[in-house]
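Progress note, project year one: complex with magnesium ion.
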Amino acid sequence: MATVTLKNITKIYSNNTYAVKNVNLEVADKEFLVLVGPSGCGKSTTLRMVAGLEEITEGEISIDNQIVNDVPAKNRDIAMVFQNYALYPHMSIYENMAFGLKLRKYPAKEIERRVLDAAEILGLHKMLTRKPKELSGGERQRVALGRAIVRKPKVFLFDEPLSNLDAKLRVQMRMELQKLHNRLQCTMIYVTHDQVEALTLGDRIVVMEKAEIQQVSDPINLYENPRNMFVASFIGSPAMNLLKGVVTAENGDYYFQDRANKLRILPQHNAKIAKYKDKNVVFGIRPEDIYDKIFAQDARPEFTLTATVDVVEPMGAEIYLYLCSGSNSFVARVSNQDTAHINQDLQVVFDMSKAHFFDPETEEAIF
Ligand SMILES: Nc1ncnc2c1ncn2[C@@H]1O[C@H](COP(=O)(O)OP(=O)(O)OP(=O)(O)O)[C@@H](O)[C@H]1O
Ligand SMILES: [Mg+2]
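Model obtained:
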């Protein structure tokens, strides 16, 4: 059992700015929780406070319902893996993994058993006598993981552990980490600025920006129901399109209007959108929910507008079309069979069942 609870956690460094502001979070036993957000949003600071490497300005952190604010890092039963995994270059892989246990005066037999177990799990058993410089980046990262595993901690903390690896290795290590979590069945908190890594790894994801939590959710709900414009544009690639316009009403229907363009808002949203009549709104739509009319299933004129193709970006399985219409620019993610070309006027259809609307002042989702 290992739960981690953060209650009203705030961190102010000596420069008097909030690095972390009033964060509340409950990490369940055996959960894989990911903290994601842009550079400087407070992810590492949050993690380091859990580890005991950073003093807490305000609030309480508990591990297994025991407040640990005053418990030193070495007594928190936590193992942390960093981006720069800093192995000891003069020690073998075995010695690198055994080092922490030796310091803690574990019996030699126990150390050997744990190191061999971890090496087996991580596929390092044939390399134990090598030095770090004789390993690839991915293998070195696995040694760093091994060093954490042998400790059998209550909680694993990861701070961007894969960002030194090339793209292909990162994907591979992502799978390894998932398998590891499955096998070890322990609580993990993982920090990254990469939203793909967050979506693929997390049971739950915490999106942070400007020292505060923006949303906590499972990956699918986060993608489908972002709470505000920041989360909407941060999660997903290419990002959700955010179009500016006004809500108009006609014969009981509501429309999103941008100059001459009009798109009908589906009636199930009438109750929520009514109070924005004649007001500015931001219409959010993901690139995969905009279709070239030729390929659209439901090409009714009230969901269709004409856009000029600015750029065509073939991505292999699909094509990104950068489009411009009215006063808005947006991206559509279409099939690689699409033949649209630059400067063409293209009829594009919006799947309005996937529409999001935001209040431009609060930036909160209307629906
Ligand atoms: N030791 C420090 N002294 C003063 N300010 C700090 C210190 N460490 C971090 N900060 C500031 O606190 C804020 C949060 O930093 P933090 O390292 O937690 O961000 P992060 O989300 O991990 O970013 P990144 O993705 O770049 O690693 C930043 O504005 C940073 O400049
Ligand atoms: Mg960081």
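The chain has two domains: 4-234, 241-358.
The pocket of magnesium ion (ligand 2) is lined by residues 43-44, 159 (CB under 6 Å).
No further modelling is planned for this target in the current period.
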